[in-house]
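Researcher: Sequence recovery benchmark, item below. Answer with residues only.
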């Protein structure tokens, strides 16, 4: 529902609270006047701009989560969890009192008109955000982020991988078909055969060395380098390969894939990546979308971090910067969404590919978030 609909269903108590919050001049005992004055105030062109510019980073992260979430309504417990997830540092730009509890934050969002209770008996204890307000916030937040990036000329050389990931999947499946592959006690390929695979793929990576931390980005991330770990996990969960009796073998489904009976699209691999990395980067879908919005032209990576780095929650030993560089931008390169270059004057630069722009745009559906696209 849109804002006007939710105001119509709201009780006079919440309407009065919103009107007082924005200092609307109207009769407090007239529901009609309350609704009209609130609509006039919230529909002003500059209203959303003022809301975004005056909100804390914590509030904007909370808002960003709602914009990209597939749920149309939330229980109190779900909202409390989102607030806990998005209040992850002591941000000096936080305009609110540090002592504010999550429940107090929800009450404040209701006073602001960001959240309303459901309209039916079954949803009256749930919370919703007006769809038209979501769209206006998305546009204004996008404008703010785009203004923060620094554009660059086209670099002298850049990397672009396009469909190489899907081609390497087939190369790996053929290798599994043609070789006897024994697995170690950790159910991983031995290093000799890992290196053979790397030498065969279009994009090679250094093998994982012992001693570093490796967890949170998939089932086989502990044993294999990032790009190959995603490829291996995708093949495993799609049941193209199976680990049985200490060996890795190709399944009948994998054979069908090699023989051309099935065609794997990069869209499916992209969806799988979003799901796989969601544990470590819960708002990954929004970060891909905002990267696409900010990098339609060549932009510097340093300014992109300035623009969207505050949306990234560190994950154990991964800082916001390393998550953006290694887990997001580099994987977007591998998935064909992004090209990466080096400018002598401005350092690392990135630009979305045409296919990446199309795919990232689909990852956002107003009022549906990533639900209809990812799952």
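Model:
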């Amino acid at each position: 529902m849109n804002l006007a609909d939710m105001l119509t269903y709201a009780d006079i108590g919440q309407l009065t609270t919103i009107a007082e919050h924005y200092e609307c001049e109207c009769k407090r005992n007239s529901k009609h006047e309350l609704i009209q004055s609130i609509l006039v105030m919230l529909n002003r062109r500059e209203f959303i701009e003022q809301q975004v510019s005056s909100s804390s980073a914590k509030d904007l992260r909370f808002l960003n989560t709602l914009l990209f979430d597939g749920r149309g309504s939330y229980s109190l417990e779900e909202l409390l969890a989102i607030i806990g997830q998005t209040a992850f540092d002591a941000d000096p730009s936080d305009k609110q009192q540090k002592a504010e509890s999550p429940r107090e934050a929800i009450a404040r969002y209701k006073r602001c008109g960001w959240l309303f209770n459901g309209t039916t008996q079954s949803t009256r204890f749930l919370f919703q955000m007006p769809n038209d307000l979501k769209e206006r916030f998305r546009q204004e937040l996008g404008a703010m982020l785009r203004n923060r990036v620094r554009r660059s000329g086209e670099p002298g050389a850049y990397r672009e991988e396009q469909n190489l990931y899907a081609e390497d999947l087939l190369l790996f499946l053929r290798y599994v078909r043609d070789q006897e592959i024994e697995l170690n006690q950790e159910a991983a390929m031995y290093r000799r055969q890992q290196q053979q695979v790397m030498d065969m793929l279009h994009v090679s990576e250094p093998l994982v060395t012992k001693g570093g931390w490796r967890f949170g980005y998939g089932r086989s991330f502990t044993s294999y380098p990032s790009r190959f770990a995603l490829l291996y996990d995708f093949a495993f969960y799609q049941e193209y390969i199976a680990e049985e009796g200490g060996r890795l073998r190709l399944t009948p489904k994998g054979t069908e894939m090699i023989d051309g009976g099935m065609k794997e699209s990069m869209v499916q691999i992209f969806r799988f990546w979003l799901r796989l990395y969601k544990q470590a980067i819960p708002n990954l879908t929004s970060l891909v979308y905002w990267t696409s919005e900010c990098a339609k032209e060549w932009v510097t990576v340093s300014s992109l971090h300035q623009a969207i780095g505050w949306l990234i929650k560190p994950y154990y030993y991964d800082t916001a910067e390393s998550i953006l560089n290694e887990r997001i931008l580099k994987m977007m390169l591998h998935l064909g969404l992004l090209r990466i270059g080096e400018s002598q004057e401005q350092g690392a630069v990135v630009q979305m590919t045409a296919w990446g722009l199309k795919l990232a745009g689909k990852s956002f559906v107003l009022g549906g978030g990533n639900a209809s696209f990812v799952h």
